[in-house]
Write a structure and sequence with these properties.
By secondary structure, this protein is α+β, with helices and mostly antiparallel strands. Helices cover 40% and strands 19% of the residues. A 5-stranded antiparallel beta sheet has the order 1-5-4-3-2, with helices on both faces.
Length: 166
């Protein structure tokens, strides 16, 4: 492991909250579906989102009753965000409940500081996405409510999914 990967994984771990805020960080696979065919970055990130949603559904989320959406739908739901807004969203998702915004999981200032460090660690050329846009959220997990933020520098990725069910 490289130091950068350790740093982003450690930082993302600080944002996780059991049964609501899930994180993943690592390296993207080098090749697309065929070894000589590179996968577009958004597609590679969508595969990571789907993989986390599928794994967590199998481990924890069966109670929600719905499966995660297919990876193609995950990819279609990803809307580009700029880095400062992605950091703000990551801090928000890590710090407050989607259902009860007055309920704090962690101090918002601390969450924002960690999120800014994550964005900085991926660098200025990283691309950022969310399933939230100006009009709403395109759910990907099968839960009543979910919102995610993910980013990649083309080699490494980070992902935070906040899930709640009423």
């Amino acid at each position: 492991m490289t130091h950068g990967r350790d740093e982003t994984a450690e930082l993302m771990g600080r944002l996780a909250r059991q049964m609501s805020v899930y994180v993943s960080a690592g390296r993207l696979p080098a090749a697309g579906p065929a070894p000589d065919e590179p996968r577009p970055l958004v597609s590679a990130v969508a595969v990571e989102v789907y993989a986390l949603a599928r794994r967590l559904h199998e481990e924890d989320w069966q109670r929600y009753g719905s499966d995660p959406v297919p990876v193609e739908q995950v990819e279609a739901s990803l809307v580009p965000w700029d880095a400062p807004d992605a950091a703000g969203l990551m801090g928000e998702l890590a710090s407050v409940s989607l259902l009860w915004p007055s309920y704090a999981y962690m101090d918002r200032g601390e969450a924002d500081a960690v999120a800014r460090r994550v964005v900085t660690a991926l660098g200025p050329d990283a691309c950022w996405w969310s399933n939230r846009d100006d009009f709403g959220v395109s759910g990907v997990t099968g839960a009543t409510m979910d919102t995610l933020v993910t980013g990649s520098d083309g080699d490494r990725f980070v992902l935070l999914i906040h899930v709640e069910d009423d």
